[in-house]
Amino acid sequence: LLGFLGDREKARILALNMATTRHPLRALRVLSVARQLGCAFKQNAYESLAHQLGQHEHWYLLPSLIKLGRRDTSRTTLRLLNWYARALIEVKQFKELEDVPLIFKEEGLRPDRRTYHLLISGFLRNRDVVKARHFLTEMQAAGFTVDSTTHALIASVYRALGPDKTVRSRALQALPGADERTKTVILNSLILMALEMRDIQGALQYLSLFKGGPPGSGESPDDGEDPAPDAGNSAPLDATTFTMFLNYFARDGNVERAMQVIQWMQDLNVAVDDGVAAALVRVYHAAGQTSTAIALVANMC
Fold it and tell me: In which ranges do the PPR repeats occur (predicted)?
C-alpha cells in the first residue's frame, strides 16, 4: 500500500478507484495520506476525482475535496469551484452557495457562464428568485449574454417547480426591478411552463405582460394567480416566445393559430430564426401538410 501512496500517479488512480466503491470517503483519505508522504498533486488530481465523485453522485464529499485541494496546494481552479457550487446545490446548502462568488474573488478566478448558470439554477431551486435575478444580472455584466442555454436552464427549473405557486408569484414580483432582457427570460420561462401544463389561458396572461403583447384574456391562470399586468410591460418579445406557441399548436396541427403567430411576428418585425422555422415545419407536418411547410419556410428564410 505504501508503494501506491508514495507514488503520485498511483495514488491518484487509487483515489479514483476508491470513489467507485461503497466507501468513497476513502478516496479523499488516499489523497490526504499521500500528500503527507510527500506526493505533491497537481490540480488535475483533484479535478478528476471531483468528476468521478460527481458521476457517482457522491455530492456530500465534494465540498470536502475542494477544501482539501485548497489546503494542500494553497489554490484551486475554476473547474473545481464549479463542482463545489454544483455539490452545494445538490445537498441543498444554499447559504454556502451565496459565498461561492467570494471564493472566486479570493482565488483571483473569474466565474464563467457555467458558474453563473449554477448560481441561477441553485437559487431558483431554493425558490429565491431575487438572488437568481441578481446573478442573471451579474452574468450579463460579466460579458455573458443570455442565450438559448440560459433560457433552457431557467425554463427547466421552473418546470420542475411548476406546481409551486410561490415560485411563479416570486418570479412575477421580480419583474419590476429587472432589466428588459431579464424580464423576457422570466416571462418566456413562465409561458413555457404554462404551455407544458396545457394551461393556454395562463400562457396568454403571461404573454399579455410583454411589450407589444395582446391584451389579457380576462381570465386568470388555472391556479387563480394574479399575473400583475403592469409588471413586465417593457419586456420585448423575442423569437423564443413565438417558437413556444408554435410548438404548442404543433401538438394538434393547428395551422390557423400558427399562422396567427407568424403574422404577429411579422407585425412586430421579429426575425424568423431556425427555432421558428423548425416549429412551423412541425405544425404543418402534424396537419399532414409537410410539403407546404417546406415551401413556406423557404420563402421566409
Answer: 112-146, 238-272
